Predict the structure.
Amino acid sequence: MLRRILQTISLIRRQPRLLSFREAGHEEEAGSVCPDLLRHQFLVSEQRFRALLESLPKVAVQGYDRNRRVIYWNKASTRLYGYTPEEAQGRLLEELIIPAPMREGVIQAHRDWIEQGNEIPSDEIELRHRSGELVPVFSHHVMLNEYTDEPLMFCVDVDLSDQKRAHRELDFANRYDRLTHLLNRHSLEEQLNLALLECRRQSGSLVLVHLDVDHFIDINEALGYDQGDLLLVELATRLNRDRRATDIASRVSGDEFIIAFSGIHDLDDIPRLVRKVEDVMRAPFVLQERYCKLSACLGIAIFPDNGETASELIRNADVAKNRAKLAGQGQVVYFNQQLHDDLLHQHRLSDRLERAVEAGELVLHYQPQVSAISGRIEHLEALLRWIPAEGPPVSPAEFIPLAERSELIHRIGDWVLENACRQRAEWRTAGLKLGRIDINFSGRQVKRTGVFDHFEACVERHGLGPRDIGIELTENVLIEADDDILAGLRRLHHRGFRIAIDDFGTGYSSLSYLKHFPVTALKIDRTFVRDAPNQPGDRAIMEATVFIGHRLGLEVVAEGVENREQLALVREMRCDLVQGFYFFRPMAAADIERLLADMVGGSRDFSS
Ligand code: C2E
Ligand code: MG
Ligand code: MG
């Protein structure tokens, strides 16, 4: 459209003597040939031209005389600059729409054009609306009657407000998070690098805090995504509150935010800034008109100690945040290199463990549990071993927690169950005199739906029953168990399966809850057995545990008995079973077979 107007105007420009505007008072003679006809043609042409200019809603056209006074002002100009043609008529260009700082320049450029023929180039500029606001326009200029005493300058301005707005919106969408209007991840990195430049210049520090809301997924699932969104917006508002201009707040993914405080000159300020972020979570959130208490884990990385660049700092704060998540809800972890190396090591180990299951690198070892009185081998505990084809064996204390962080624990758990049952059935067929094999279950394993049905089905499939296979769980697993898990355990208990609380005394250690759980045995943690001979406190706790255990009808096992003194003590305390290196270390199935075959009646006298 603009092109067409400019073409029209240039056409007129090439025939300056054929057109005039009445407003400018230029009705010219066009030679001697039939002046009436020519005048008529002028008028028709002028009307057409006017009609065209008036009909363009977005193209503002203004005409100015030699002294830059308005001689023409179309409707679009009124729309763009706010003045009616009557108001604009006769007023100076620079007074009407030229912002003060540009005035001198415009006057000079106009003069240069009419005096020296230097055209004013087309340009994107901002002109002034009647209200004082600036209007972005693309402005093109045309001079008519250029070489006469009455030059007329026409300005053709196209309103760029819509484009500029669209541009701004696009820019906003590219830089900011749509929901919370905080910076997004991409622009966080940009801003952070700028902040780091400034920190370097001033030899200051910067602290980066990665915040991850605990159990946000539960809110989404329980209350719906709308409520989840509300929560994120509220959180963003809180993070933005009393934020200094140099602080950076951004949302980097679903429920994760990064906040950066720069220009720190005293490292003692860092804990205070971290507390500021922690405080954001302290006040309850209102969701569906109910107060809701939430927590978040924080990972912290500090410039320059924990990284030189934005991406390095972001990655390290993320590492610290992941470590905080592992430690539980509402935890705060500061990054250090050891953390990073540990994580890398675990990552590699995790990869190897994944392959270990298929590669047949897992084996079960068995540790006998012997009768404290007779010394006879009663039962075995199955203990998993990972013996990689390359490299040293890895302790279950290291790889079980690792497997727990992924679905891998279920594959491993299934493998243990299957192999322990197969082994127990094999030994029964071989006629070995033996009680149960007890299997360890970790927290994540018992949370799997139908875990105990699966357990029972496997036991039955191998032709075994409650006298052959038992389970061990830690106190914390029981405390955190939900109703489904407890119902499953009660069913097993009811059917006569042995359920032992492992490492008793290291978890919540509340004796009173014992009566609530469907358990049949207590395994006193080896730290008590180790310390009791010399520590009256540990001894007292152990005695009380054995006493209450027996009063509740539970079997009591002493773990980790390593020497004669400890054995004497646990016997004196009347523990029922003893497990420990003093008797047997965990050993391969073949060694168990040899051991049982060697022993007359499966027992050995340890009293001497
Ligand atoms: P746990 O169930 O408490 O197993 C007893 C641990 O104590 C075993 O360590 C065993 O070798 C060790 N132990 C036994 N007697 C003595 C002793 O006299 N002195 C000392 N210092 N240690 C003794 P292990 O085999 O390294 O297993 C560590 C933990 O890994 C187990 O603790 C258990 O929680 C877990 N685990 C082992 N196998 C499995 C499994 O198949 N599934 C699951 N979920 N966890 C397992
Ligand atoms: Mg155990
Ligand atoms: Mg134990």
Q: What stands out?
A: The two ends are 110 Å apart (CA to CA). DSSP finds 23 helices and 21 strands in the chain.
